[in-house]
Amino acid sequence: MRADRVFAYGAAAGLLGDLLLGDPRRGHPVAAFGRAAGAVERTLWRDHRGWGALHTAVCAGGAAGLAALAARSVRDSRTASIALTAAATWAVVGGTSLGREARAIGGALAAGDVEVARERLPRLCGRDPQALDADGIARAVVESVAENTSDAVVGALVWGAVAGVPGLVGFRAVNTLDAMVGHKSSRYRRYGWASARLDDVAGWPGARLTAVLAAAAGSDPRGAVRAWRADAGRHPSPNAGPVEASFAGALGVRLGGTLAYGGRVEHRPVLNGEGRAVAVGDIERAVRLSRRVSWLAFGVCAAGLLPKRRGGGS
């Protein structure tokens, strides 16, 4: 069977598994990777870019290499290849858990329980919840849903379509490393540099596809394109910028502005300044848009509209 068909069938099964089951409560493969990466960091850490690059190569390269060996071991079996692709897809995508957490926070805000919303926010993003009021929490949730649609779903599907199981696993490994060491704290400014830059490169195609599909699937395609073109380049992240701007325009809301991470206050540019302030109800709209974008991304990837990869099976 052609490799693109193996991916299409396996990814469809994996996405359905995520839809029905969400992330496992215990023993998540990504959590296991995180523990292994943490152990490597404890051994290698130096305040130096070179050691950080070695950490990235060992962790991301090791994960992709193991995935390649697994894919090679089952390549003569169509059923096993599809099953491995399904398992890898289910393990690396997180669309259902993303929507579940966002809706839980939205429900708490709708009930007027801001404290519960603050308690749950760290499960979704790294903002300082105590610095946010209800409106700030709602905006943080919508921004996180937008960015994680690319990071947790679309980017993985893109690399899965291009490189199969190693692409799925490798992308999620890179994305996880960026979350662990890629931020600009005093400990990781140099050590996490390689992970952050590699994540920028790996996330580039998925972010642009996410932005395109958000514009196509949202209620205001012209507004999404306009916000993307006008504001994406002002965002400090080359990948979050297009995604968040397109979501902002598609939903008709303003995103960006002042936020706090780990005690640091950042003043980010406003995205889609013509839109209105985010309301609690926009969380549900963002989750629905995220789901439409995710399934459209699967359609694009499964239809073979991305660069072909060679491979076969029985």
Report on the structure:
The protein is mostly helical and 314 residues long. The protein is 69% helix and 3% strand. It has eleven helices and two strands; from the N terminus they run ααααααααααββα. A two-stranded antiparallel sheet has the order 1-2. A hairpin with a 2-residue loop joins strand 1 and strand 2. The termini are close together.
SSE arrangement:
Blueprint: H1 3-21, H2 29-44, H3 49-73, H4 78-92, H5 95-110, H6 114-120, H7 134-181, H8 193-217, H9 221-231, H10 240-251, E1 258-261, E2 264-267, H11 281-302
Antiparallel strand pairs: 1-2
Summarize this, please?
The chain contains eleven helices and two strands. The protein is an all-alpha fold.
Which term fits the overall shape? globular
Order of SSEs: HHHHHHHHHHEEH
> How many β-strands, per DSSP?
2
Tell me the β content: under 5%
Number of helices: 11
Q: Write down the Rg.
A: 19 Å
The termini sit apart by: 6 Å
Helix content: 55-70%
Labels describing this entry:
globular; 314 residues; single chain; 11 helices; 3% strand; mainly alpha; two-stranded antiparallel ribbon
